Amino acid sequence: MSSPVDLSWDAEGDPKAPVLVLAHALGSDRSIWEHQVEALKASYRVVRVDLRGHGASPAPVGPYSIEDIAMDVLRVADVAGIRRFRYCGISLGGLAGLWLAVHHPDRIAALVAANTASKIGTAEGWQARAAAVAAQGLAPLADAIPARWVSPAFAAENPARLERLRRVFVSTDPRGYEASCHALGQADLTPMLASIRAPTLVVGGRLDLSTPVSDAESLHSRIEGSALVVLEGATHLSNLDQADRFTAAVAQFLARSRE
Question: Which residues contact 238 (CB under 8 A, 6 or more apart)?
Answer without folding.
Answer: 90, 114, 115, 203, 204, 205, 208, 231, 246
